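Deliverable D5.2: sample structural annotation.
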Amino acid sequence: MLASSLFPDNGLASLAGTLLAAGHRVKVLDFNTVSVMGRLVPRTRTESLSELLPALARGPTQEELARLLQINAELEMDLTILAESLLEQLCAEVDSVGADFVGFKLWSGDGFSASVSMPRGCAAASLS
């Protein structure tokens, strides 16, 4: 059985409760959602990968390996574009509420690097 990470986040709830108890305004942003996951791996990429499944089972040709590398590069670009979009959304929310503290959740795996870079991007944007 696989555990899904697409469930309400207790860590965000705990952070929100602690900040509320200390008198802060709180807004929870959970970017670990089905809609964000759909943007992370667009249908066109899923379809392209599905077409290559038989090749992976039998052992891909050089051409099929090249296609997999191309899809991987496209997925990396999709991730970059999505992270930039989420950064804009996060910074806009932070600015609109005048936040003293920011806590948010992304997806696991590649989301970790974006989790580190996004707050830095908001901090840089607020300083400029």
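Annotation notes: The chain has a mean pLDDT of 79. The two ends are 47 Å apart (CA to CA).
The annotation will be released with the project's public dataset once the embargo ends.
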